[in-house]
Design goal:
Number of helices: 11
CATH topology of the largest domain: TIM Barrel
Oligomer: single chain
CATH architecture of the largest domain: Alpha-Beta Barrel
Number of strands: 8
Strand content: 5-15%
Helix content: 40-55%
Bound molecules: 3-methyl-2-oxobutanoic acid, sodium ion
Shape: globular
CATH superfamily of the largest domain: Phosphoenolpyruvate-binding domains
Strand order of the largest sheet: 1-2-3-4-5-6-7-8
Largest sheet: 8 strands, parallel, barrel
Structural class: alpha/beta
CATH class of the largest domain: Alpha Beta
């Protein structure tokens, strides 16, 4: 199996083929999604919520994300592994961004990094790509800026559509190899996708994007509770784990596990 490279995603866009991306934070999910043929695995800063139990992505640190990224990059044979730069680790300057991104590549084996922001992140994206680090941009609703954006809301409705397009063009010009668009109206995201040479990856941005991404704990039902409208439920992993844990617990308490076949 040939590794997925950034140029493959570009070529898929040129051929009109779609590709898929999922989050992954550890070995077994990563290896399973790789086996399934998912092109891109994102070690998202959403690990803040899904691994570390925080309420937002803001508290997670580089030190917390590096080991997860290393686990994922070790566990795939084909997928492109993208390390997500956490809040505060790249916004200060292009130099800060470069030094952080280098750690994801050198210490954790990431094949690329992702950062949030459009026009204002052009210096960071330029510095990274010139320094040999492929960059995936992330525009539209950017969770690290939820307190600036005023909560989880669709970006690019009405007049602000021009802003999202300007961000998309800016990250392309700065050298990003792809761009995630989060919670952008489908018609705007489709229009941007047609205007860009680089692939777009939608999350809550409609079917007009070149690729799609979801957080697997949401899409496959490990996490319970309220889901965003853009999440489709493909499985109920929580129910499977809950039942397995209850069955095990009952067996232990009844003395029916371990049986003779599990005993030396
Ligand atoms: O951290 C994350 O999971 C993400 C995706 C939702 C794009 O940034
Ligand atoms: Na993220």
């Amino acid at each position: 199996t040939k590794r997925v490279r950034t140029h493959h995603l570009r070529e898929m866009k040129e051929r009109g083929e779609r590709f898929s991306m999922l989050t992954a934070y550890e070995q077994y999910a990563a290896a399973t999604f790789d086996e399934a043929g998912i092109e891109v695995l994102l070690v998202g800063d959403s690990a803040s919520n899904n691994v570390y139990g925080n309420e937002t992505s803001l508290p997670v640190t580089v030190e917390e994300l590096l080991p997860l990224t290393r686990a994922v990059s070790r566990s795939v044979r084909r997928a492109l592994v993208v390390g997500d730069l956490p809040f505060g680790s790249y916004q200060a300057s292009a130099e800060q961004a470069y030094l952080t991104a280098v750690r994801f590549m050198k210490e954790a084996g990431a094949h690329a990094v992702k950062l949030e922001g459009g026009v204002e992140m052009a210096p960071q994206i330029e510095r990274l790509t010139q320094g040999g680090i492929p960059v995936m941009a992330h525009i539209g609703f950017t969770p690290q800026s939820e307190h600036t954006l005023g909560g989880y809301r669709v970006q690019g409705r009405g007049e602000t559509g021009a802003r999202v397009l300007a961000d998309a063009l800016a990250v392309q010009e700065a050298g990003a190899f792809a761009v995630v668009m989060e919670m952008v109206p489908g018609d705007i995201a489709g229009e941007i996708t047609r205007r860009l040479r680089i692939p777009t990856i939608g999350i809550g941005a409609g079917a007009g994007c070149d690729g799609q991404v979801l957080v697997w704990q949401d899409a496959f039902g490990l996490r319970q509770g309220r889901m965003a409208r853009f999440v489709k439920q493909y499985a109920d992993v929580h129910a499977v784990l809950l039942q397995a844990a209850r069955d095990y617990d009952a067996d232990v308490k009844a003395g029916t596990f371990p049986g003779p076949e599990h005993t030396f």
